[in-house]
Amino acid sequence: MTPEEAVAYIESCTWSRTRLGLDRTRELLHGLGDPQKRLRFIHVAGSNGKGSTCAMLDAILRRAGYRVGLYTSPYIQTFAERMRVNGQNIPDDALASITERVRAIADEMEDHPSQFELVTAIAMVYFLAEGCDIVVLEVGMGGALDSTNVIDAPEAAVITNIGLEHTEYLGNTLAEIAAAKAGIIKPGCACVCYDGAPETTAVVAAVCGEMGVPLAVAERSRLTPLAQSLDGQRFLWKGTEYALALLGPHQQQNAATALETVAALRRRGWRIEEAAVREGLASVRWPARFEVLSRRPLFILDGGHNPQCAEALIRCVRELLPGRSPVFLMGVLADKDYGAMLDAVCPAAREFICLTPLSDRALPGRALADMLTARGAKAHACTDITDGIEAALAAAGEDGAVVAFGSLYLAGAIRTVFGDRQKASLRREMIAAREATPSEERAARSARIAERIMALPAFHEAKTVMLYRAVGGEASLETLIQRADPSKRLVFPRCKGGRMAAYAPREGAWLSGSFGIPEPDPTRSEPVAPEEIDLVICPCVSFDAEGNRLGMGGGYYDRYLPACRNACVIAAAFETQRADAVPVQPWDRPMDAVLTEDAEYRRV
Q: Residue 295 and residue 195: Cα distance in Å, rounded?
């Protein structure tokens, strides 16, 4: 089974044909050896803020030194985002092999598991195989009957903000929905609750009382906002100051919920130093949550898709973009309360560019534009996402702002297209910068980079090193190739059909490959498995101080590096190729370090 076949199989099993309940998931997991029984969890339910709270807890626990699994839904850009270990998406080969194993059991079941149930089972197998110390587990829908609720008592059951959603399944009142979400609370766990509507907190408290579970509420009165900007925000929680990378006042309350969860974990014996908490909150990233994709032009992406999200979005706009009326790039699903969403955003908008989300439940962009025009707003529709982005940027002007929102089904496509646009622009800029340096100077700088790499402990300790013979203005590693210790095995990539493979070539066994880069002749070379590689060195077009790299655009390394499980990965570039920030997509892997002729940038 290939990774593409795995995803196609999973997505062919829709949930709409099955009844709610846990029996299928239990049966499937039992056939897989009940991996969930050998894992420890933080279980997170709620209507809004689940993903952001999970991301904060994941960042904090990783900084505390734990190996952390993160399970979230839906994905924004790539299916593999749904299950991560220590910040890295599940590798393609692991997804394919586990899915094949799960399918063999699922297809024999009389009552076939749904898509979400399959994904939950795959994630449990993966997290156990990866030796996770703890898993941050986000509920898909509701709580009591969600397939994630097959776990035993978690370390903490966390209930984030609750609103009216999925009323056909969860109930028609906040109290009924809260009762469904409180179904994740089990005797033996701790419970943490967002300080939301009084009726929802009362339901959670009652359930905790019945089960003898200690409850901590992240009380708003203990939180004091200090300052915020597009760079982040600062707040006091119980008198202690924290910095938070995520934007918007609602994220402070989500952070308070995460902090209260950390306190609950500490009471249960988990070692989480205060430095880990501070660093985790200050560094956490979560896509499509008032995410600044670009500063100039200012382009903000938000996956908000219900009235509560729209109201939070407008609070962010008013506080972080005072006096500015953004152009909204918007698309919605037909089964959402988009009328209430428009009530919230119309007064703040300069103009609307309307798109159709990539879903069979989408409201056509043309229909949304007509509805906005009837309300007196300036709006028109675009049929193509690229055209929509360009139209929104043109309408905003150089000093204006674009805010894209309305559906997570749209957010992923916008993030991909806009990211590719940014990368193409940065690539052109950096190629021009390196070409402006005389060839003799580039050769001298390349030699210094090679010397610095050979001086690294990682290079001395490596037995198998993968690198490629750069062309054009990239940093050349020919000095390293010529002077490396003969006991080291130097291997080189061959790229074909969207895939990369490593080979150890014999003398003269070279062909001209992608972008004119010399590649080993596979008929006269020894294939090398990625697991055998100790060190990967990647010449690149651009990089930033966080270790993010920009290649020539083929994406070969991005697909190959996750399989190099044992390798240290280092980028090589000229100092003139350093950017303030390289646009990052979820499949991009940050380098462990970047070496230039003058400096070393190591990922925190």
A: 33
